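Worked example (supplementary).
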Amino acid sequence: MTPFRFIKEIRFFMKCITLCSILLLFLGCEAFLEADSPNDQIDQSDVFQDEAYATAAVTNLYSALRDGVLLTGKTNGLSVLFGLYADELDYYSSSGSAFEAFYNHQIMASNTNVKSIWDASYNLIFMCNSALEGLDSSQNLSPSVKNQLKGEALFVRTLVHFYLNNLFGEIPYITSTDYVQNQKVSKTELEKINQMAIQDLIEAKAFLNDTYPSTERIRANRSVVSALLARVYLYNEKWQEAELESSYIIDNTAIYNLGPSLNEVFLKSSKTTILQLKPKKAGDNTDEAVSFLFSSAPPPFIALNPDLVSSFLDNDSRKRDWIKEVTDGDQIWYAPFKYKQNQNTKASQEYSVVMRLSEQYLIRAEARTHLGNLIGAKQDLNMIRNRAGLEDTTASNSSDLIEAILTERKFEFFAEHGHRWFDLKRLNKAEEVLGPVKNNWKITHILMPIPETELLLNPNLAPQNAGY
Amino acid sequence: MTKNHNLCRRRRIYAGCLFFLSISLTLSAQDLLVSGQITNGQLPISGANVIIKNTNTGVVSDFDGRYTITARPTDSLQISYLGYTTLIIPIHNRSTINIILQEDATALGEVRINAGYYTTTDREKTGSIARITAKEIEGQPVNNALEALQGRVPGLEVTQTTGLAGGGYTVRIRGQNSIAAGNEPLYVIDGVPYDINSLSNPSLAGLVLPGGIINPLNTIDPSAIQSIEVLKDADATAIYGSRGANGVVLITTKKGEIGKTTMSFDVSTGINSVDTMTTLLNTEQYLAMRKEAFANEGITVYPAYAYDINGTWDQNRYTNWQDKFIGNTGLNNTFKSLISGGNEMTRFVVGGSFMKETTVFPKDFNYRKTTFFSNLGHQSPNKKFKLQLTTSYGQDKNYLPTSDLIRVAKFLPPNAPQIYNDEGNLNWENSTWNNPYAALESTYKNKTGNLLANSVISYRFFEGLEFKTNLGYSHSNLVEKQANPHTMYNPAYGLTSTSSNALKNEGKRSSWIIEPQLDTSHNLGKGKLTFTMGTTFQEQNMEQLGLYASGFINNQQINNFSSAQNLKILNEANSQYRYLALYSRLNYNWQQKYIINLTGRRDGSSRFGEGNRFANFGAVGSAWIFSEENFSKHLKWLSFGKFRASYGTTGNDQIGDYQYLSNYNVSNSNYDGLIGLYPSRLYNPHFKWEKNKKIEAAIEAQLLDGRISFEVAYYHNRSDNQLIDIPMPGTTGFSGIKSNLNAIVDNKGWEMGIQSRNYETDFFHWNSSFQLTIPKTQLVSFEGLENSTYSSQLVLGRPLSIYKLYQYSGINPGTGLYEFVDYNGDGEITAKEDRQLIADVSPKLYGNLSNSIRYKNWNLDILFQFVRKNGLNEFYNTEPPGFMQNQPVGVLDHWQNTSNPGYLQAYTSGRNFNAYYAHIKFTQSDAIISDASFIRLKTLSLSYKLPLKKESATSCTLFLQGQNLWTLTSFKGGDPEQISGFLPSLKRYSLRVKIEL
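After joint prediction of all chains, the assembly is encoded as:
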């Protein structure tokens, strides 16, 4: 082949390549790569520029509590799990479940319910922090809306930390969405947790009004925050502050009163309610009713501990109104009957009650006892006893009174959000009460284990709680 | 198409030769005029080359396969035709020689191999491309073409996730490259990329089809497939750029063939069943275990809920629950038909199939599939313009229980009550058990439709310049429903149909692609230069809608969502993926001796944030055919020899859409009339492609006139910049964040294949092949692994599929409980410090040995598959022996007292917390790892072709086929390949008749 021919061939080939390269021009349009945005997602910066969106981002915090974690009436909520863990509920379903581990005190660091409480709680805390950061940087919202929403987000964030603290002991108190920090965070000291919780609640109170932001008592106002604050002070043995906060609610008789009938306490319009969670749809009732009620014996899942039921006085109308008997003709089992609707109704009748006035009376009674105001304390305690059809308390000294208040709380708050367990724990009664009835009881059971995976992922969270 | 093209060219060359001969030679007196017809046994072969051996003299057979050639009586004729074995026939003074050519898929340098954007041949290929043809697929009674690949291709691992028809597959080409992003190969069907991801919602199907994975290829009839090419190395995959890292699977559907219009009918009927089950305790053994467990804990009064031994249940009952639930025989009926024909200008094929398969579960659960496909090819008389139109549509329907019954079959106590009471109603035994048949009331149904259409239009301006456009469209839609009538629950709950509920999920995905492409080729120097360049525009849209309905006036209405008292939309989502690319290939072939192949691609994808959208990928491949060199040409025993090597980069973008955005999700978790809004994820806009470098070297050779051929390849792939959903501790609010991590994963290994034609006569053929793959996956580096969230899952220098486990050290003779090695010697056994034993469950080697024997009209194909690996055994995911759950018989070997220590610890009912705790650790120790190696008779196909009259093209073939017939293994946990908790691949027998007219 001659050199000329070779060059000619090369030239021909170059022509072809040039032609091909014209195709390259197509690549000029990078705009082609702009994909349509998905219709089920909204850019974060847009969420907090719009009042409806911003409000939805905050009300979603309540739905997370209602459907997902801690206060949920579903079986993964505190009401069921810690009813089983303490002496309120008995377990009747198949062996080997995570529920049984709670009932038999066989919880290990790998327990799935414990992990999901931890993960879902911190996810909820992230939502609160994301809302708080979004609201802080928002330009378009009116100050009143902004304050209301910030107050609610702070309230929920503190509530979740409060429960985590009481379940797990020292836990990280998270106040930002920064994952770089949060992935290697260490435990916050107990004192610091309480200090931050109280500070956050005081701040939340300042952001909120006395009126509820919606027509029903389903979102936080100032009284809701006071009610939680009263409980936090009680757990911290700050008696004066606790009395002050509970009085703030008790004294507001126009809004809150104990009402005439025990059967109305858990209705959505109840005057004893301070905060309740509204069901998802009109006609829905509570998950508590679905979890607790059963209609034939033996119970398919859980039932009230018969010892608890028999410890009620016979004339205690709570036994009549809040407990349901189910029998197979031979033996009797008991279901918690505070919530009575486990099916849909035309309009919703019951909402899940998170905080109610009774607790404030009993908080104040306990605080007053410690402050030496035994008369005031008895008055508060008798308010609750009398409403249940019982006569005045016979306790005369402060230690008897403390005991009487604990007993009253057991009858008043059974199967509600683990009140019983947290009372036994904070009053150091767990060993005395549960030791004899739970075979596997150990003093270290006072705290839940930090989820195993969490310690593996973040060694800074060490040490694991004792005993796990 | 290309086949035809070559043929025409060759024919012209030979015609030229003939002309030359006719004027330069005169007929010698001894010369002889030989004539005859060339057929494939049935049809004439036109265009076959007939050459006088060791000369340049030759002719080409005409349209009727006839030829006439002048030769000396002592000459030999060499007859060759594309795709057929070349024959050499001595003339021996005969004037009429009729020749039957045998099809030969292994003939090097003849069959065109699809490499995606171009074609090549076995002789000229510079990359690693494995090929499975219709013949191998047809020999197996399988529902999905992927299953037909199982155990057949070196470097390819196919695992069926469930033995149920209509399920999913895990496919890995040369191991797992990505720690966390997708590891799925790219699938391309007739030039259209095909998204293999399931449209199913795992919450509907996940308990019966693992992960809710439904493979969209289920709706493509395996018999519609002409060939499947598996592209493995950089040379073959770099032209697919960002989607080539995990290899590419090219599926080519059947095309029409020139000649008489033929029609075929193919009817088969088969049975399938579970081959290997775990042996469980019988009632006597089980109750003894339970009693001993309670006795160990000093419990004499059995608790109220221990119904199995406290007298509530009949202690003499025995039910083999495995037989009851997964021991039934499934039936498969298939009917297929195909019409094909055409001439030089136009060819067509139309085919369809119908299939129904029932399950091994009780009740009438079943899977049904209907498919249709067609292809039309046309070219203009001057052969400049060409057109290919391909359309296929497949629909399948699956009807299943919501949950795989294999779990309940294994765990249910053997003395559990009877299913039905004497009145024929479900028996709840006074609320003492959850009747597993009630769970069958909860059903799952799905319906999938898949449409694939594409056209390839090409125009050849002149020899050496062709413009081609590939236009493709695909559409898949899936509707699935899960019905949960209240009758699935214990009537003790007092539920009515107002508590019945149903879930529905609708998924749609459509995609279009346009790929204009220019091909040029030219002789340059002593070689040939080929250049290809094209662009890709692709858009894919996906929609998903999830509904929940509850409260029906009766359960007949449960499929009618409009009659539900409550209806809510669970999710409505859409996503769009856009993709843009420029690709090119430059190939230079110097005298069929030295070949260099350059490929490259520039890719842009909408899955990444601005600034990270584009990346370049490329590869260089080369081959040296040393058998063409002078030094080896005289070696009679070496008919072909080639070295090839390649190096290049590919990428991986399988991370899902929109992951770089900081968004809030809209949900239906209404509160006070407001929608739910929650943060979608931790925000990271900076992540980019995962890159994968591949290097390969191989030798290919044919010995003894092609009687023996072999290929040995060594490959090494390295992936870095790993796209990971880095696990985050819960305190961050999420379980992970999408990010690139400075981690390197290596996959390297050897692949070997040997084929031999052991024996060949006119009526007896025996071929064998042996393939072996020795893979190795290794985590080479991982920035900050020790402190990272992956430290519990990965170890440097080890494969990705490992478990970090406690090391079981035996039973404490005193307590009778398990003990484990305390690695850090702190006196306590803790997860982080003491789970230090590393168990690797990836395959160490795998391969197959196959034999094909033909004797007259009989044909026998046998394929043995073998795998060497470890697996999770029968103790994985179990409760402690002594609980109210049945156990494998292995638990009988247990601690009874200090003199009978046994293999397993003392039984426990759960009261002994230490025993429970020890058992949990036991299930996280090396005691759950066993040798799961196996040798399996994967395929056996025996066929007999009925002797019909020779002249007629009519044929009738009878087949007896089997799949997964026999397994040799020491593994005790059921099938060594099965995914824990789901049905293993089934054993299948099928009888089949194929008639061709």
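Two points are worth noting when inspecting this output. The two ends of chain A are 85 Å apart (CA to CA). Residues 287-336 of chain A form one domain.
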